[in-house]
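User: Reviewer 2 asked us to show a designed sequence for the structure in our supplementary figure. I'm pasting the structure tokens here. Could you produce the per-position amino acids so we can include them in the response letter?
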């Protein structure tokens, strides 16, 4: 794809997401999840090799078909190929959905309805939300916004820019399998190893670009300090930079103990400042939204620059 096509596709994909939101019926990722469950039932063994095979069976056919469709459409019409690629990006992005989920937590927090806030944040995180107090609910929602800004927005934009529709399909399906198989449970300790490691690899650069985006758009010095000091202490090599830089950028304290599967897990503290509240959720959403605008501006500037110098650079 040319730089101009990439910029146009990013603008259109973000625009479609803002206009339509996630498909309410027959979302392709829901269908993929069912396929992945069937593949797991058929191939699961307590072995890494089985996990590698299952990952390939689940992801590679979809990426191959997407690649073939892009090439076929491009032979017929460059516009058709760009429209198809834009639709793939739209289906992979969850910017509007992220805001909807976060505001569904923020509103009851402001109203003092802790039970509803707990129920709503339970749709965003995997921890035991019924034992959380108001600040912990706000922290969970804020962490989810910052981390999913990388996973559901910036990561998809990055791989679209690098590899077009096949790249964004590869990234989003790998991300979905990590969410399904990547946990260190008895069932997935070995089987899910490949899904977790592949997702880590695909997210390595986008996560750091996201962290840098948060730092540039917030309190830069504090964000960079938190990133350098706190990210290495976090279990996830990609969530650590994203959440520590994001928390530092908006001046909030996240991390700390959290309940999972009936017991409290002691996690490092992320960020600096006051404990999280409803304002922190809004600040995280604003940071992600401003980051999207920044990425779109960079893409448009790159497209204008290549057009101005008369080049036809291809990614």
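Assistant: Here is a per-position design you can include in the supplement:
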């Amino acid at each position: 794809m040319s730089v101009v096509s990439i910029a146009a596709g990013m603008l259109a994909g973000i625009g479609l997401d803002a206009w339509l939101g996630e498909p309410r019926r027959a979302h392709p990722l829901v269908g993929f999840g069912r396929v992945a469950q069937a593949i797991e039932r058929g191939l699961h063994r307590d072995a890494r090799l089985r996990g590698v095979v299952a990952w390939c069976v689940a992801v590679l056919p979809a990426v191959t078909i997407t690649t073939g469709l892009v090439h076929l459409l491009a032979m017929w019409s460059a516009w058709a190929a760009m429209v198809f690629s834009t639709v793939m990006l739209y289906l992979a992005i969850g910017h509007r959905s992220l805001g909807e989920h976060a505001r569904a937590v923020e509103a009851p927090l402001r109203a003092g309805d802790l039970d509803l806030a707990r129920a709503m944040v339970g749709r965003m995180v995997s921890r035991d939300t019924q034992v959380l107090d108001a600040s912990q609910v706000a922290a969970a929602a804020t962490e989810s916004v910052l981390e999913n800004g990388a996973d559901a927005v910036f990561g998809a934009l990055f791989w679209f820019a690098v590899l077009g529709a096949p790249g964004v399909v590869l990234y989003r399906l790998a991300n979905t399998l990590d969410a399904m198989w990547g946990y260190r449970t008895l069932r997935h300790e070995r089987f899910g190893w490949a899904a977790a490691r592949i997702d880590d690899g695909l997210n390595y650069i986008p996560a750091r670009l996201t962290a840098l985006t948060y730092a540039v758009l917030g309190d830069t010095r504090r964000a960079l300090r938190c990133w350098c000091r706190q990210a290495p202490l976090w279990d996830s090599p990609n969530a650590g930079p994203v959440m520590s830089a994001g928390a530092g950028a908006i001046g909030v304290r996240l991390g700390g103990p959290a309940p999972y599967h009936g017991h409290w897990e002691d996690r490092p503290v992320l960020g600096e400042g006051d404990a999280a509240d409803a304002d922190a959720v809004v600040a995280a959403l604003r940071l992600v939204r401003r980051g999207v605008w920044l990425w779109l501006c960079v893409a448009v500037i790159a497209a204008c620059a290549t057009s101005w110098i008369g080049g036809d650079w291809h990614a």
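For the response letter, you might also mention the following. The two ends are 6 Å apart (CA to CA). The beta strands are 252-255, 258-260, 263-265, 269-271, 274-275.
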